[in-house]
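sorry for the late reply, my laptop died twice this morning and i had to redo everyting from scratch. anyway the thing you sent over, i finally got around to it. pasting the sequence first so we're on the same page, its 456 residues, then the predicted structure underneath. double check i copied it right bc i was rushing
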Amino acid sequence: LRVRPGDLPDEVTKALRTMMESAGNKVKQGRIELLVWETGKKNAKAGDIKSRVGTALRRADWEYTEGEPDAKVGPFTLVTALRTKPTRRALVGFWVPTDEALILAWTEMLPANAESKDGDPVSAETAPADAGHGVGQIFKDLKPKNVVTPPVPGQHKTAASNSSPVAATEFTLTAKQYCVNVMRNAMPPMPAFPQLTAKRGVVRGYVKDGMGRPLAGAVIGVRSSSAGGFYSGASAKSDAKGYYEVAVPWGAASFYTATITQDYGEGRASFGLHPADGEADSFATANGLVENWVLLPYGIGDRDSANDHPQYSGNYYGGTLSVGYWIADPRFGGDKNLPNGSELEVTLTPEGKLFDGSAGKPVVVRSAVWEGSRTTFYINNVPVGAYRISARLTTGGGSEALYLKETGPYASRPFGLEPKEGAKVATLTFRPGGAKAGMSPAARGNWDSLDVMVSR
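ok and here's the structure:
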């Protein structure tokens, strides 16, 4: 259902107006559209409808991005769409579910100096070839059989106006995106530490987990260099109270490792530690230093590297995996690869509590399958724990579950997928870079690659 402009609920127009106001005075609001789909009881069809809408947009050369719901303002999910050819167009709006329907409300974003034409707020500069049709025209094949016009909740905050960041659990990759940082820039809160004063020639501090519990056995290593470029190093382990102290040789010093070995899954794993103050820079040993460390279930260890190389697993304390596929050749029947123009959806569902004892959330990543585009994408910084992984393929003929297979240089090693191949649902445990503490750099994650291929 596409609701007529004259029948738009006031709540919808107010919510969209609020979103536009938060965007600043360089843009103004254009046309508004409200689309409604019948989803059945408990919104059983909602996920499939969103997936089909995203696929339809990308096929029409739109870059579509879906945000995350914010419990503080209701079940809204922010969406944006951008198309640069043949003319530039931008849309912003939100999804909102009701008991048995799914609503998409959005509006055009126009330059502030755009002039209206015959009452139509689309300027000549930005008017598309199909300006005579509604924005919802590309969804003409998605209309429900029955018309429903449920009430729409009120005001919505955009990401720009929301002061408390919420980790997204659903992502839709654009054609240019190949990496997902599940927790984005969010970092867990740091625990409190006892006050210490710096001691000359000594590095000392405490090691705790995110709940504030002391960690024994963490290895903290410091390397010093003096005149002539000669290096010498020293290390120490934290005691039962989490305290460590390293006597450092004279010179300019830096941390070469900060790790701890813990029980993990069915084995053991070494985890990188995070400096509680966010810095692990070089320092002069003559002055001494106090540095506290924290074991985190997720977060970015090296922000500069994550910006330049977002696919590198060591940039994150959270777990990482890659998902790959091959594109089917239409000349051959029975091809098990993914057809061009389809959409791949990967879901990670926590199995029990996460590594730190907290409750996790499902993660859903969607990516269009196009010839000439990347056939591998990375899911990074997933809160550490065991997950159930599944993948689905959506085409014009419906959707189907896909087979999973672990590949890559470490596929035969412990952790990863179970079973390794031949299943449509598997248990996933992120693969650590080893079990021995002291073998990976400070302020970095310690993850080996975990590569998953999907096929029909």
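Helices lie at 10-22, 46-59, 303-308.
thats about all i looked at so far, will dig more tmrw
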